[in-house]
Amino acid sequence: MHGSYQRKLKDLPLAGQSVVIRLTVRRFICGAADCPRRTFAEPFPRLATPYARLTSRLGRALEHVGLALAGRAGTRLTAQLGFRAGRMTLLRKVMALPDPQPARPACWEWTTSRSAAGRPTPAS
Asked: Model's pTM, two decimal places?
């Protein structure tokens, strides 16, 4: 072990009280000579992403509020729910989301009366 440092993460409120998780992160030294990183920190992938100040749960909640309301209405809702977030925070959360996958286009032959050769079939 090389050392440790403190990390503070905001989480969803509990019983109307704001929650801050104080996390002690350990740093380790890599003993391999060919390792490009000499030291590395202990990861917490289920709790928060690296460099994040919010837990994953709070981040998802902000994404949902941002998708539903965004802007000032979202800010008012988050204040009522007990975790304050500014309108730009909500908009940044929404803009960081990946674009939704487009619907799979239907096959041309399934939606029209074309033959396998791609020519229209004669109407009878």
From this structure: 0.71
